[in-house]
Design brief:
heterodimer; A: alpha/beta; six-stranded parallel β-sheet; 20 strands; 16% strand; B: alpha+beta; four-stranded antiparallel β-sheet; 3 helices; 31% helix
Chain lengths: 559, 101
């Protein structure tokens, strides 16, 4: 058939099962958009390319399937970079398609020309500069294969305008790109892992994003129950275990509950499943799980031994590894260890002061959760509100918790929530944000209103960059600087100006009723929650400190 | 000093032959502040692939860099090739500038 590079691209995206793309058009991507108009793909018009990137990330994180965003050349591409880098750090399958100036003008400093290929080398799993329309037949399926194989990640496909416009004859279309099969799990490795677990007196499972990516939550639970092993989670592993499961210890690391870090301190075998020993999770690495031998299971061979040398490293899809491992592990009650973990949980629980008050951090998170179904999707921005939500939200299911972990990108929450709502119609979506973070992609309120997505923004507003303020208080002698906003926008009025209903709980006679009313109404809304600037996230491990050295503050400085 | 006398390693990579490969490979070293002392690149017979020889310091971080190189989509294979160190000495004779000590 006769077609163009642009139309061929749309056809190949359709064959990948892509139904929605987020983006912003521009001069160098107009042929793509012209072809998009005739395709079966729905376009969501973001208001900034970073928003488009995070909308696509929201779709990918909520479903586990690759998602697509579009941007034009030059500033369109540079605006996308943060969302692409964020996908790299958190291993999210994202395919970003960018327009580029015509091939003959590349290298001439043409209008809106930038070296997108060069810029995206260090922040992608792979990238392509497409040289001809024929190449699209290989590049597009390859982009999806690479984004979804092994450890997922972002792929950028840069398509010059002349390649989009080129007319070509295409015979049979290529098969859609699918993930490569994971490496075969070595039977020896599984036997050794089972023996190490059986021999351990105080084993612990630490799960991360890999357990979510592998869809291995139910197998994990079976193993933990059968062998009576406690399970802790990194920030991105939350949701793999139900919050109230008796074996679940919650999140580890800088803002872990005290007992969680103390259990890690005492374990004699750490089984890391789809984790990468991030410094926010481990604290000072030399003092992380000091008594433990390590089994590390990850699909990325370069992670084994990168930070902590394991006694046994297993390169495998963590789901396949767990399915092979679970039957080989001996069922046992581990009475002494279980009792010790229970005792630590009792003596060093997570303190959640104010959790009955909707105008305090833990209170607004708990009340919001209580008003939403168990499987509501929760996105966050980055800062104190993110850590309070990670500590206190009652997660029950994988892919319910979408947060920017590795890159820590303020501005992630709102567009990611829009993406999640688009990808999961019928699911409730709440975005916990902060007044610093929300402003970083506030323009996406317009997208939320236009798409009428069911996204509830709960804004913990302390008129500060709260986590910066907290670190200045704790580690810089309370020499506060550049962490307070002296002009405080009326966020409810801002939301309404974009066409998004809003309420200010601070001005409400009955905050809880106002919250319930907003969460029950259809479509997007914003709930402004004034909170005290002095509220800090505790416990806190000082950056660079050992996890056992947790700072508590104020009302719960009991240890 | 001859390359073989220093604490160096030689890596031999087979890579896809297209314009972006070198930036992917060199970028990995650059962002880790890992110096590359020598690079040789020649196309292989079929024109689809190239061979790259890298002369790099033998460093505790090298194994991690090799692991990361292995992950690059355009890197088809990577191996240590100590026997190829002489190639850099052979090239040196062609690039030394007259009159420079």
């Amino acid at each position: 058939m006769q077609t163009t590079g642009a139309a061929l691209t749309m056809r190949l995206l359709e064959r990948q099962g892509i139904g929605v793309v987020a983006g912003i058009p521009g001069g160098a991507s107009l042929p793509l958009y012209d072809a998009l108009r005739d395709s079966g793909i729905r376009h969501v018009l973001a208001r900034h390319e970073q928003g488009a990137g995070f909308i696509a990330q929201g779709m990918a994180r909520a479903t586990g399937r690759p998602a697509v965003c579009f941007a034009t050349s030059g500033p369109g591409a540079t605006n996308l970079l943060t969302a692409v880098a964020d996908a790299k750090l958190d291993s999210i399958p994202l395919v970003a398609i960018t327009g580029q100036v015509p091939s003959a003008m590349i290298g001439t400093d043409a209008f809106q020309e930038i070296d997108t290929y060069g810029l995206t080398v260090p922040i992608t799993k792979h990238n392509f500069l497409v040289r001809s329309a024929e190449e699209l037949l290989d590049v597009v399926p390859d982009a999806f294969r690479i984004a979804t194989s092994g450890r997922p990640g972002p792929v950028v496909v840069d398509v010059p305008k002349d390649v989009q416009q080129a007319r070509i004859d295409v015979g049979a279309l290529p098969e859609p790109g699918r993930p490569d099969p994971p490496p075969r799990v070595a039977d020896d490795d599984i036997a050794r892992a089972a023996a190490l677990i059986d021999a351990a007196r105080r084993p612990l499972l630490l799960v991360g994003a890999g357990i979510i990516a592998a869809g291995a939550a139910s197998t994990l639970r079976r193993l933990a129950e059968k062998a009576s092993i406690p399970v802790a989670s990194t920030l991105l592993g939350l949701g793999a275990m139900p919050h109230d499961h008796p074996r679940f210890l919650g999140m580890v690391g800088m803002h872990a509950a005290r007992f969680t870090n103390l259990v890690l301190e005492e374990c004699d075998l750490l089984v890391g499943l789809g984790i990468r020993f991030d410094d926010r999770a481990t604290g000072r690495i030399a003092e992380f799980c000091p008594r433990a031998r390590v089994i590390h299971v990850d699909i990325d061979p370069s992670e084994l031994g990168k930070i902590r040398q394991p006694a046994l490293g297993v390169v495998a899809d963590v789901g396949e590894a767990l399915r092979a491992l679970e039957p080989r592990v001996t069922a046992t009650a581990r009475a002494a260890w279980s009792a010790r973990v229970a005792a630590l949980r009792t003596t060093h629980p997570l303190a959640t002061p104010g959790d009955d008050d909707p105008l305090q951090p833990y209170g607004i998170i708990r009340h919001t959760a209580a008003l939403l179904p168990d499987d509501a999707i929760v996105t966050t921005d980055v800062g104190q509100h993110q850590m309070w939500a990670a500590q206190a939200y009652p997660f029950t299911t994988p892919r319910q918790w979408l947060t920017s972990g590795g890159l820590g990108t303020m501005g992630f929450g709102l567009p990611a929530a829009i993406g999640a709502a688009l990808a999961c119609p019928g699911r409730r979506v709440v975005c916990f944000s902060g007044d610093g973070s929300l402003l970083m992609n506030v323009q996406e309120l317009a997208t939320a209103a236009e798409e009428n997505v069911d996204v509830k923004i709960v804004l913990l507003n302390n008129a500060h960059l709260g986590l910066v303020r907290q670190q200045q208080e704790l580690f810089y002698g309370a020499r506060f600087h550049a962490s307070r906003f002296h002009v405080e926008p009326d966020f409810a009025a801002v939301a309404r100006a974009f066409g998004v209903p809003a309420v200010d709980l601070g001005a409400s006679a009955s905050p809880l009723d106002a919250l319930a009313g907003m969460l029950a109404s259809p479509g997007p809304c914003l709930v402004n929650v004034p909170i005290a600037a002095e509220a800090n996230v505790y416990p806190m491990v000082p950056p660079g400190g050992a996890n056992r050295d947790m700072i508590s503050g104020g009302s719960h400085a009991n240890v | 000093m001859r390359t073989s006398e220093r604490e160096t390693a030689v890596l031999r990579l087979r890579v896809r032959n297209h314009p972006g490969v070198m930036s992917h490979v060199c970028g990995l070293f650059a962002r880790r502040a890992f110096n590359v002392e020598g690079i040789l690149c020649v196309p292989l017979a079929d024109g689809q692939a190239s061979a790259i020889l890298l002369l790099v310091p033998e460093d505790a971080r090298l194994e991690q860099v090799v692991q990361q190189l292995r992950k690059l989509e355009d890197v088809l294979s990577i191996e240590r090739a100590p026997e190829a160190a002489g190639a850099f000495d052979a090239v040196a004779a062609h690039v030394e500038l007259p009159g420079v000590a």
